[in-house]
Specification:
73% helix; Farnesyl Diphosphate Synthase; homodimer; 1% strand
């Protein structure tokens, strides 16, 4: 288990996995030759805008950690793409004027600023259906059902979308720490944990492996959100590629607001250690996951 | 093959299938006990608002026509619910101010008029994920992949959502009949045809049966849209439960505009006959489908 230069390791992993994903996305987009060109441009605009691609990397690294073979890697790549499509659709809809009304995302104008509100809504809708289509067509037949179930349940009313509703309802309302944790477990945590689980499912993981990466994903998800909240206070828009200081402006509940900045940072570190601890039964095959966890807490954007 | 009182037969089928679906929806909605209450209210509001429920009936009747047994009927019911969720999500998003900006749907205020634009967007998003989740959890394992693929492909960039983009781009632009047919084949036809195919897939249909119900669904889809366009000209909002005359007001391309009213009606009748002809190899098991086809053309709302 390498402890040296974790962020550099993580960046290497993110870069390599991201390149695999981008190549695969190009191939996927080319399958929709009969779709309206402007719709596909809008989808491509947001899908190819970069970003850290943390979720796909978690899928691929969890598959590796669980010893996935060649066929498993194909299912994992399909899962990684499906996950990134769902994540991207949620950003496109979240940025809409009716929602967070953001102009900037990943350093570029948001989808609706370029393509209009109607097209942004439809592009988001289309990305969702594409995510499930990829699983059905590209993942191995015996894992399709489990992968669809995992992705759908993590995205839906008890997952990401439910969390967005809680986030909206929580504006200018004081939440308890417990309520805030529920919100984040759903809004951000569900997809991060599902990314880990889908990688394991693709690999045909044992129940013990699946439980371990689920725990890892849960702690990572919490750490991720705490750090996100902290960065919204301490970073500049240039660093983040999106507006900052928005949480306070919108009266959103955050860890820094509820706990203070330094206790938030300490809690992120606690979650990081717990996440790494979850991987104790894995050997060197989980070094990538350990590096990614440290990256999540140490990142500056 | 009963020719008597087709509409009455169809109404009986629609009513019976609709009741089965509503009971099932109640059970499905109860599974999301941990979701935000207001989100589930918004979803239930649109899902339980009635409507003809033609698509679910097509799924169930195609499964019957192909000789589906008990387990097949369970997969078909899951498919019917998934299909209605996708159809309903598309209506909720289509009614948004950024899209068609409609105030009335199925005789009631549209979702966003009651729950706000943000919640309507999220409710639509959630319905999509729920659709795929139901297939993964409730359909028989050996057909999940095919059903997910069918639903996703019919809904996505080359299906319904792509058709909505063409519809939007076609406003105040003159389309050829061929372009209009492509638009409708995607916007409305894809889901209607997929409803038929999912019923057949659930039943474990032969290739010949699947091809026959696909043809039936294709003709039915075209007939449905022609009649929809005609009714937008000839009906009142009271009859339709939604605004009428909107196509002309928005400069939309329709069959009556391109062909005239009477030729449109004749074309619908031609499609009806072709649809029924596609079922020639089926016996009395397809009587329900024949009745539904006649209903689609003879309906007054």
């Amino acid at each position: 288990m390498s402890q040296a230069t974790p962020s550099r390791d993580a960046l290497g992993i993110l870069q390599k996995d991201s390149q695999r994903l981008v190549d695969y996305f190009k191939q996927i987009l080319s399958r929709y030759a009969d779709a309206p060109a402007r719709l596909m441009e809008s989808i491509e605009y947001s899908l190819m805008a970069g970003g850290k691609r943390l979720r796909p990397a978690l899928v691929l690294e969890c598959c590796r950690a669980c010893g996935g073979d060649g066929q498993s890697q194909t299912s994992a790549l399909a899962s990684a793409a499906a996950m990134e499509l769902i994540h991207t659709f949620s950003l496109v809809h979240d940025d809409l004027p009716a929602m967070d009304n953001d102009d900037l995302r990943r350093g570029r104008p948001t989808n609706h600023k370029v393509f209009g509100d109607a097209m942004a809504i439809l592009a988001g809708d289309a990305m969702t259906t594409m995510a499930f289509q990829i699983l059905a067509t590209d993942a191995a037949a015996h894992v399709v059902g489990a992968l669809v179930q995992e992705l759908a349940s993590a995205s839906g009313p008890e997952g990401m979308i439910g969390g967005q509703v809680l986030d909206m309802e929580g504006e200018n309302v004081s939440l308890s720490l417990e309520q805030l944790q529920r919100l984040h477990r759903m809004k951000t945590g569900a997809l991060l944990k599902a990314s880990c689980r889908m990688g394991a499912l693709a690999a045909g993981a044992t129940a013990a492996q699946l439980a371990a990466v689920s725990d890892y994903g849960r702690h990572l998800g919490l750490a991720f959100q705490i750090v996100d909240d902290v960065l919204d206070v301490t970073s500049t828009p240039q660093q983040m590629g999106k507006a900052t200081g928005k949480d306070a402006a919108k009266g959103k509940n955050t860890y820094p607001v509820l706990m203070g900045l330094d206790p938030s940072r300490r809690e992120a570190a606690v979650q990081l250690q717990a996440g790494i601890q979850s991987l104790a039964s894995f050997g060197a095959s989980a070094d990538g996951l350990r590096a990614l966890a440290r990256f999540v807490v140490e990142r500056e954007n």
